[in-house]
Amino acid sequence: MSTHPLNVLELACDGVRGLTPYEPGKPIAELERELGIRDAIKLASNENPLGPSPRALEAVQACLAELARYPDGNGFALKRALAERHGVEAACITLGNGSNDVLDLVARTFLGPGRSAVFSRHAFAVYPIATQAVGATARVAQANRPDDSMPYGHDLGRLAAAVGEDTRVVFIANPNNPTGTWLRSGELEAFITALARDVIVVVDEAYFEYVDDPAYPDTTQWLDRFPNLVVTRTFSKAYGLAGLRVGYSVSSPAIADLLNRVRQPFNLNIPAQEAALAALGDEDHLSRSVALNRAGRSQWHLGLAALGLTALPSVGNFLCVGVNRPGTEVYRALLDRGVIVRPVGGYGLPEFLRVTVGTEAENARALGALGDALAEIASH
Ligand SMILES: *Cc1c(COP(=O)(O)O)cnc(C)c1O
Q: In sequence order, what E strands does 56-146 have?
């Protein structure tokens, strides 16, 4: 036996060694423990402030006696419902443990050493992680300039230019998190049309249900034209089921077949499948959630203007707020006031904070705390 201490770092695969883990929003219970308070609010992870549909909760209750059984590894009922919703065959649907899981399946299926993925600067943090974890290279395209109509958003020209011989996947977030910026139908369609067919294009539509711009595309309707297209959706945002982890992709059956080969056979548990199915049938809850978000976004824009601040344009359930000073400073001052938001320095946006649109009362409290926090910082 060697007497040298074991350096496990050296044992890890190249890509993994250089990875930094995804930083989730701070949990409410953690802040309450730290401050000894009871009424903290979290506007940090783009969750639905209304919670899940009551029908989803009933469905979870009703299936608990089944928990000794393995779930349906094919997710038959949920896939059928989703296929019907999108007007595609069930063979086009791939279920994921959150859409994060699907993004990872795409990376494991199409990326690896000697291959590259293209995505934008300031794009969703899971793209670089999924890319690097499988030993592929990230080709990061410059984003729009700060004075663009979609500041810091995806620059499709630069994304196209970043595609190289070794590129197998392009990740596009529409709208993007954390910026909130989005791409319109015409420009996105032109981009995919011009893209080489041997490059998989993933359009991540995690916030689809919230978007109210008529020019925003439903790319699930483009599958017939683009055999290299993978569209991802989730139940974590507008459907209010982030804690259960349900997402999916819509793609050609051939791509779905490949993703299915690397998918863990039981990646969606029983309550998750049942809740998602029930949530899909509750249009009222979805409309209430979308309406609350629309009103909340206006409340934030007005409240920020009153504080002399602005947010980037957003069609999601969150806003990327410019604070004109280090975001972490304001983040910490908000924590002291029991309000959790998200600093986005790790996304290359050090003077912004991402805030999730909450209930009217949560938004009012967070805006009040933001005013107090800025006044306190200015008085130092
Ligand atoms: C929240 C989010 C997701 C969804 O993650 P889940 O794994 O489905 O919870 C995917 N993409 C983006 C851009 C997001 O912001």
A: 93-96, 116-120, 137-141
Q: Report the residue among 94, 100, 101 best suited for mutation to probe ligand 1: largest number of ligand atoms under 8 A from its CB.
A: 100
Classify residue 249: in a domain, yes or no.
yes
Ligand 1 and 144: CB distance under 6 A:
no
Task: Tell me the pLDDT tens digit for each residue of 344-374.
Answer: 999 999 999 999 999 999 999 999 999 999 9
Pocket test for ligand 1, best of 126, 174, 354 (most atoms within 8 A of CB): 126
**Which residue owns the Cα nearest ligand 1 atom 15?**
177
Asked if residue 10 belongs to a domain, the reply is no
Beta strands per DSSP E along 235-368: 247-251, 310-311, 318-322, 339-340, 342-343, 352-356
Domain harbouring 366, CATH code? 3.90.1150.10
Indicate the number of domains in the chain: 2
**Per-residue pLDDT tens digits for 36-58:** 988 999 999 999 999 999 999 99
Q: Is the CB of 159 under 6 A from ligand 1?
A: no
Phi-psi region of 245 (alpha: psi -120 to 50; beta: other; left: phi over 0): left
- Residue 224: which domain range? 54-281
